[in-house]
Write a structure and sequence with these properties.
Jelly Rolls; alpha+beta; 35% strand; binds fe (ii) ion; three-stranded antiparallel sheet
């Protein structure tokens, strides 16, 4: 089954009971999709590159229901704590190993080796990092297609605080630095964005 077959199949599905996202695809279906495409990458069907300066990514597929991205990670490359707004998501590691920091009543860590991955229900907040000394490659899928991301930090009180939001179709966007996001105090006093 190819990525196009799975996407086509998704269009024939009716939303199952319990679906909270505006999409007929489920987390199981997205995981199946990323696992299938990850295998295609291992078979050499999709080219990828590594870029230590700017994280490299390419969109392999897009339709009304889902988009699929191939992303590479050189050592120490990471995202920042973020969610995927109104989209469900999943990832499968193709090669190498990634670490996911995710929020679950506190910041928790799990290692994602090759052929394994994670799934991102609505509200899932995470940071993905290549902490190894080898490059890594992963396949990500989002449904509905990604349109926005929210960024977060963990406060001194060990709570999650949203620091910014962007409209984006790219899971690897250039994100604003924390310095550019005014704190609530600054916003109230009118110092605002610099
Ligand atoms: Fe993410």
């Amino acid at each position: 089954m190819t990525v196009n077959d799975i996407a086509a199949h998704a269009q024939s599905l009716s939303a199952p009971a319990g679906t909270v996202a505006p999409t007929p695809l489920t987390l199981d279906r997205l995981s199946e999709l990323t696992a299938t495409v990850a295998e295609e990458v291992r078979q050499g069907l999709h080219e990828f590159h590594f870029d230590a300066e700017d994280r490299w990514s390419v969109r392999l597929h897009a339709d009304d229901y889902t988009d699929v991205w191939l992303i590479s990670w050189t050592p120490d490359q990471s995202t920042r704590l973020h969610d995927h707004a109104g989209s469900l998501g999943a990832l499968t590691v193709v090669t190498g190993e990634l670490v996911e920091w995710y929020w679950e009543a506190g910041l928790r860590e799990r290692t994602l080796p090759a052929r394994e991955g994670g799934r991102f229900p609505l509200g899932h907040v995470h940071d993905v990092i290549n902490t190894s000394d080898r490059p890594a490659v992963s396949v990500h899928a989002y449904s509905p297609p990604l349109t926005a991301m929210h960024y977060y930090e963990v406060t001194d009180q060990d709570a999650l605080r949203r620091t910014g939001s962007i409209l984006t179709t790219d899971p690897e966007p250039d994100v604003p630095t924390l310095d550019s996001v005014p704190s609530t105090e600054e916003a109230v006093t009118g110092e605002g964005r610099r």
